[in-house]
């Protein structure tokens, strides 16, 4: 890879092209490996495909670009504070629509910071939810019989399931 | 991409939930249920909690109403077990209470023994056959009743003194509760000694894994329990670094009746006793009461000495920390508080990991004080005058131990 390359082009799973700066791509281990393995210069024909849909990839790249300066150089406490606020705003998204896709993308792209952030966001959302609300957002079918459910309630009288 | 999250991601999310929400998730579907109730999940959860103490620690309190000899005997004494969870961002306490006295025999004196990895041990400190000891998980509201210890005495009428004070006329019984990391087991140690003799106490160890008591033959340093009349924090132990600690007394040789206090310790893995020296005040300061001080989410041994200043007719609380565990020279006084502050300090209860100190004031107010900024935040009110405090983390232990484990 030539050191003059500042941005690389990748394809989303829907086939759209995206530009991501080299410093931002370093936040992901697999992308980093690609940087080392694949030719990213303009005259290279091969454009690597990331198995993440366009809508999600936009968000992932947005996160990477925002976090790249701090990840690459280290930053002051005030920057860290600002970044924390930015993360909170960034994570205000529709769970079903995009958060789960971000989770899977962060897991697939080995992005520890984003994965941790997305897991925590999902956990915070679940805290106030009833069991049926949780099933709904996770697309889970209830496979307990009503007897089994009653038994679970009896086993955990200290916990509210609603 | 499918809309279903892989279980490995679900597991990551679940680990970030409070214990109550995790338990709720056992009823989402069978796959989640078997994921959560797996032993590996329960241990992983505990390890993550312990490794991030700043986010997860809280303080566990038991408050008891002090009985006077004139109080009519009541069936169940007034007592409250409370969990005070500290939110690190706001220093707000949330309080949860646990009624437990119905699990014990009437008229008994149930005391907090200790807390470790989300489990709490409570016992009624009676030498009688009918004595009850339980290990419970406040977060899950589950408990297990321990089998009867090996050495007990027959349930005979032991007098009004027993009823009122709940102190046995002949025997002292006290306990420790902690985790044996070598055998991955939770243990309760029980000491029973005849107050009238200087004989070695009878020592038994209970293991949660085997659910049995066994007597152990071990050398115990000579000691007696401090003032047993009213105030008995020394009956509960402080567990840290794999060791139980109690403050006890020993007569100075020569028969003058003078005694000194020291820390009796018991190694949960080796099952051996040791002694540690208490921090020494200066010659013009006399420590009236010494108490082991729980430090939230920490492995430091700390002591508070309630000190009489001889010259100035003043009482202060001196807070000491043993910087290197086991090294007597490393006792360091970190700060002191005049007992007249804030309208009168009744006792120092605990240190938080943000460097604050939890106090109980005259009148029963519990406050959180920053000794540097001198800020005072009210936390709660305890109209109880005996109290036991411990550092606490939530855990899922006892979740999958049916049918031995019961719910309350």
Automatic annotation (TrEMBL), chain A:
Gene3D superfamilies: Potassium Channel Kv1.1, Chain A. Keywords: Ubl conjugation pathway. One of its GO terms (biological process) is protein ubiquitination. Pathway: Protein modification; protein ubiquitination. Residues 8-67 form the SKP1 component POZ domain. InterPro entries: SKP1, SKP1-like, SKP1-like_dim_sf, SKP1/BTB/POZ_sf, Skp1_comp_dimer, Skp1_comp_POZ. The keyword Lyase does not apply. It holds the Pfam family Skp1_POZ. It comes from the Eukaryota. Signal peptide: none annotated. Residues 113-157 form the SKP1 component dimerisation domain. PANTHER family: SKP1. Part of a SCF (SKP1-cullin-F-box) protein ligase complex. Involved in ubiquitination and subsequent proteasomal degradation of target proteins. Together with CUL1, RBX1 and a F-box protein, it forms a SCF E3 ubiquitin ligase complex. The functional specificity of this complex depends on the type of F-box protein. In the SCF complex, it serves as an adapter that links the F-box protein to CUL1. Belongs to the SKP1 family. This is SKP1-like protein. It comes from Acacia crassicarpa (northern wattle).
TrEMBL record, chain B:
PROSITE patterns: FBOX. CDD domains: F-box_AtFBW1-like. InterPro entries: F-box-assoc_dom_typ1, F-box-assoc_interact_dom, F-box-like_dom_sf, F-box_dom, SCF_F-box_component. SMART domains: FBOX. It comes from the Eukaryota. This is F-box domain-containing protein. Residues 1-46 form the F-box domain.
């Amino acid at each position: 890879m030539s050191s003059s390359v500042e941005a690389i082009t990748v394809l989303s799973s829907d086939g759209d092209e995206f530009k991501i700066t080299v410093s931002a791509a370093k936040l992901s281990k697999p992308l980093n490996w690609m940087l080392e393995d694949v030719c990213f210069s303009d005259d290279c024909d091969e454009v690597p495909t990331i198995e993440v849909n366009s809508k999600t990839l936009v968000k992932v790249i947005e996160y990477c670009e925002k976090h790249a300066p701090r990840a690459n150089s280290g930053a002051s406490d005030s920057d860290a504070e600002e970044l924390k606020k930015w993360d909170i705003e960034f994570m205000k998204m529709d769970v079903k629509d995009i958060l789960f896709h971000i989770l899977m993308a962060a897991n697939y792209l080995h992005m520890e910071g984003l994965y941790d952030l997305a897991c925590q966001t999902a956990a915070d959302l679940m805290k106030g939810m009833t069991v049926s609300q949780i099933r709904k957002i996770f697309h889970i079918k209830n496979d307990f019989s009503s007897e089994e459910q009653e038994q679970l309630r009896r086993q955990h009288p200290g916990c509210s399931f609603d | 991409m499918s809309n279903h999250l892989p279980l490995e991601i679900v597991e990551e999310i679940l680990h970030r939930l409070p214990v109550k929400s995790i338990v709720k998730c056992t009823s989402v579907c069978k796959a989640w249920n078997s994921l959560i109730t797996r032993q590996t999940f329960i241990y992983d959860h505990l390890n993550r909690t312990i490794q991030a103490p700043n986010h997860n620690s809280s303080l566990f309190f038991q408050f008891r109403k002090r009985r006077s000899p004139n109080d009519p005997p009541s069936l169940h004494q007034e007592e409250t077990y409370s969990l005070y969870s500290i939110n690190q961002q706001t220093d707000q306490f949330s309080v949860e209470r646990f009624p437990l006295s119905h699990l014990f025999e009437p008229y008994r004196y149930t005391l907090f023994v200790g807390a470790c990895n989300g489990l709490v041990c409570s016992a009624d400190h009676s030498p009688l056959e009918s004595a009850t000891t339980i290990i419970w998980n406040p977060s899950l509201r589950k408990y297990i009743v321990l089998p009867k210890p090996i050495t007990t005495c027959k349930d005979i009428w032991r007098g009004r003194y027993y009823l009122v004070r709940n102190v046995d006329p002949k025997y002292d019984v006290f306990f420790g509760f902690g985790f044996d990391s070598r055998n991955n087991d939770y243990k309760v140690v029980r000491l029973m000694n005849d107050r009238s003799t200087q004989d070695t106490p009878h020592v038994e160890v209970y293991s949660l894994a085997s659910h049995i008591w066994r007597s152990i033959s071990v050398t115990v340093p000579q000691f007696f329990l401090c003032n047993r009349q009213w105030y008995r924090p020394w009956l509960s132990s402080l567990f840290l670094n794999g060791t139980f600690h109690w403050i006890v007394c020993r007569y100075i040789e020569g028969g003058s009746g003078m005694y000194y206090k020291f820390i009796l310790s018991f190694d949960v893995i080796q099952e051996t006793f040791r002694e540690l020296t208490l921090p020494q005040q200066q010659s013009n300061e006399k420590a009236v009461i010494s108490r082991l001080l729980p430090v939230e989410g920490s492995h430091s041994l700390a002591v508070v000495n309630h000190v009489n200043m001889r010259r100035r007719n003043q009482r202060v609380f001196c807070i000491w920390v043993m910087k290197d565990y086991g090294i007597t020279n490393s006792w360091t006084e970190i700060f002191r508080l005049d007992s007249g502050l804030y309208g009168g300090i009744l006792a120092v209860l605990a240190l938080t990991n943000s460097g604050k100190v939890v106090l109980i004031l005259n009148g029963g107010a519990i406050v959180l004080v920053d000794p540097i900024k001198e800020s005072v935040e009210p936390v709660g009110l305890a109209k109880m005058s005996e109290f036991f405090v411990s550092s606490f983390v939530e855990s899922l232990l006892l979740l999958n131990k049916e049918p031995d484990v019961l719910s309350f």
